[in-house]
Amino acid sequence: MSIFQMTRTVIRNLTGGPATRQYPAVPARTSALTRGHVAFDPSTCRSCGLCSRRCPCVAIRLDKEAKVWEIDRMRCIACGDCVEGCPFGSLTMEQTYLPPVVEQRAAERYTITYVKPEKPAKKPAEEGAGA
Ligand code: SF4
Ligand code: SF4
Known about the structure:
131 residues; alpha+beta; Alpha-Beta Plaits; three-stranded antiparallel beta sheet; two-stranded antiparallel ribbon; 15% strand; binds iron/sulfur cluster
């Protein structure tokens, strides 16, 4: 870096504002690639458990019997692995950030509401079919 470039950088840093933002007072900037937080849709989750097995931070807990799905936001690093791995599209990566966590909270808990559709009744064999 030449002395001219260095001087310009120093002056810009001295005269410009802070490089950081006063988040959350000033909203964070987001883009299409921002990983804000994981959102869960209890109406499509089929309790397969892939998300909890893929999570590197053990942030997701699933109780198949009780139909309970939980996420611990204090553990989640928004890597997106669970979102990529969910075969039913029940997880999405939202671009918005949740409010900062300032105290230890219990994991966010959802009751899975997905109901397996009934199999269509078999049609009675048509009379005389194949006779
Ligand atoms: S985004 Fe990553 S860390 Fe967060 S719950 Fe999903 S897999 Fe776990
Ligand atoms: S959120 Fe997706 S991957 Fe996780 S248990 Fe439900 S269906 Fe399976």
